């Protein structure tokens, strides 16, 4: 293939960003518009001041023209995120249950619709940064426990998985080879017994 | 093991110590002694691919002695084992065998009873974390001894991890 190696089996952060723009989000439009059927999703009939769910990319276009307000998702507020951060600290072996695209959504919303978010955006940014860092540290510590067969990824977001995927895959592949090679004759007989 | 994997080919060209069980006429160049024979019982380092054939073929038909006997490789030496036990991340794999992990896989196929595979797995686990740590800080000028100790496989790991980290950082900081 013509694509460089690092783009073949992995997504770019920009691509993940793009994917998360198809997520539905609630808006409060300031104008009325007939509904539009799109391939895969649709824009419902919009009436001024009536809440509707539209894909995020539509919401961003309308927002940039000042034709709507975006209702931020319920997890995007200081209290909830701080609570998640506390949970991360309390359970060093678990990831807190943030949405699978929390990094992308929060980045997009803070950049393009910061006036719709109730809390101060610099405070949100700093708590998101804290969350990201504590989760990165956990991922790093998880590398020590890596084995050839499985890995626990519960509650990790797409972006975070994407960031470590090629690295982890290579290490696990090599561990698998070494594991196969390190099987002694007795181990193989043991395996045979179970069958 | 794949036929087209260059790392695999290079790994099988790593030299390992062994002992000849008979005179080998004309092979003196392996010892740096061209034109002469290798005398019986002399210790020579030969590439893995050659040793693996010689060690599996008997000297004569109906004879249980093979051409060569395998010696102790550097990763089985007690010095190396102790060094790993002390601190896996400060072992100089690049100096010992630049294709350590591949060689261990090849080697274990010959010597099924040896623990070197499990030892390599433990070592890789420990070093993977260290490599990831360094890769995450690779936007600063890297001037660290640790990177010189990596074997070839670990180098590709490092490259991949730092590349991805750069991309993600770039995305996070961009507008």
TrEMBL record, chain A:
It is found in: Nucleus. Residues 13-71 form the DNA replication complex GINS protein PSF2 N-terminal domain. Residues 75-176 form the GINS subunit domain. The keyword Nucleotide-binding does not apply. GO terms for cellular component: GINS complex. GO terms for biological process: chromosome segregation; DNA replication; double-strand break repair via break-induced replication. Keywords: Chromosome partition, DNA replication, Nucleus. Belongs to the GINS2/PSF2 family. Component of the GINS complex which is a heterotetramer of SLD5, PSF1, PSF2 and PSF3. This is DNA replication complex GINS protein PSF2. It comes from Scheffersomyces spartinae. The gene is PSF2.
Automatic annotation (TrEMBL), chain B:
InterPro entries: GINS_A, GINS_bundle-like_dom_sf, GINS_Psf3, GINS_Psf3_sf, PSF3_N. Keywords: DNA replication, Nucleus. Residues 80-172 form the GINS subunit domain. One of its GO terms (biological process) is mitotic DNA replication initiation. It is found in: Nucleus. GO terms for cellular component: GINS complex. Gene3D superfamilies: 1.20.58.2050. SUPFAM superfamilies: GINS helical bundle-like, PriA/YqbF domain. Residues 4-55 form the DNA replication complex GINS protein PSF3 N-terminal domain. It holds the Pfam family Sld5. Coiled coil: none annotated. Its main location: nucleus. CDD domains: GINS_A_psf3 (cd11713), GINS_B_Psf3 (cd21693). The GINS complex plays an essential role in the initiation of DNA replication. Belongs to the GINS3/PSF3 family. Component of the GINS complex which is a heterotetramer of SLD5, PSF1, PSF2 and PSF3. PANTHER family: DNA REPLICATION COMPLEX GINS PROTEIN PSF3. This is DNA replication complex GINS protein PSF3. The gene is PSF3.
